[in-house]
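User: For my dataset I need records formatted as: sequence, then structure tokens, nothing else. Please produce one.
Assistant:
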Amino acid sequence: MSAVKNICILGSTGSIGQSTLAVIAGAPEYQVFALTAHSNTDALLEQCLQFKPRFAVISDPERLDEMAAKLQQSGSSTQLLGGPEALEQVASDSECDTVMAAIVGAAGLASSLAAVRAGKRVLLANKEALVMAGDLFMEAARASNALVIPIDSEHNAIFQCLPSVPGGLAAEQLKAVEKVVLTGSGGPFLEMPRESLVAVTPEQACRHPKWSMGRKISVDSATMMNKGLEFIEACYLFALDAAQVEVLIHPQSVIHSMVHYLDGSVLAQMANPDMRVPIAYGLAWPQRMQSGVSPLDLAAEQALEFREPDLKQFPCLSLGMEAARQGGGAPIVLNAANEVAVAAFLEGRLGFSRIPLIIAEVLSKTPCEAPSSLAIIQDCDARARSLANELIIKEFH
């Protein structure tokens, strides 16, 4: 591998993509190979002019001509590709070393899987890829010797606290791990009376007290479904049983997760709540690099608080934990129903407190065969989405 690392950023116009570009902006050892967006042509053009990637991808075919015209008018030499297939093309290109997989939701699965199959260093910020296709994804990584480094702050914290690394002595040394604890802030409605959740608006749900994120993941944080998805992701990433994963509410968001060992030791990773920290760790591993984040000043912090989650206040978390225990197609159905329900909530077609009810009904009515291929996974996903949409339409009318 050359001294200069070529990076492809899938979802470069989203919050994780922008933070990744901020981290590498002053790091000459990183060359941007490809940038991708779904439809945000203005932001993608601006990034292309600053970072001069070889390729830019617009996955929405209807915005391709618009992007082509903008690139031509700007005089950019970046080559434009279009459609979902182009995401897989740039993610698996032989000249690309590192792939930041930051496309939100099921839309990021195929390209993330393509990167893993091509043996890349994959910085995984798309938790749905593991939720939907965990066994398939990790088996592909082992077969290709891909290095998967989680970028979710919680899983990145666990990765940093584990005794070894993929491909090393991890399998043996993981026997010393008793459990992992995922921390969560509790989102904006931690202290809100349960009966008041009925009237929650999208604007309230997207106002996270600690993190600046996109609208979908902000709603997932407000329902704590994000922690349910992370629960499933942790099981696949670290080869853990559901019984070895726990969740604690930690409103200050200073400790990002913990690993408990058999000897009674507990290792925790701490940092200011800023996604540039795990991004920088993933980029530089096994070394470290500047992230641009201010150092943590514990003396100036509030007292650190921990509590068990109230599963009646956050039924989506309970649904995620149960899907992890069930395995099979349950995580696929859970994720699909959640994506549809959250989209309907953001569009004003579904009440906030109805989100978990839709998910629970779809889970109970969508059987799936063992998710042994991408085709089976996509079929299960499509059927769950269809039922979720039907149920929401009935509610709305």
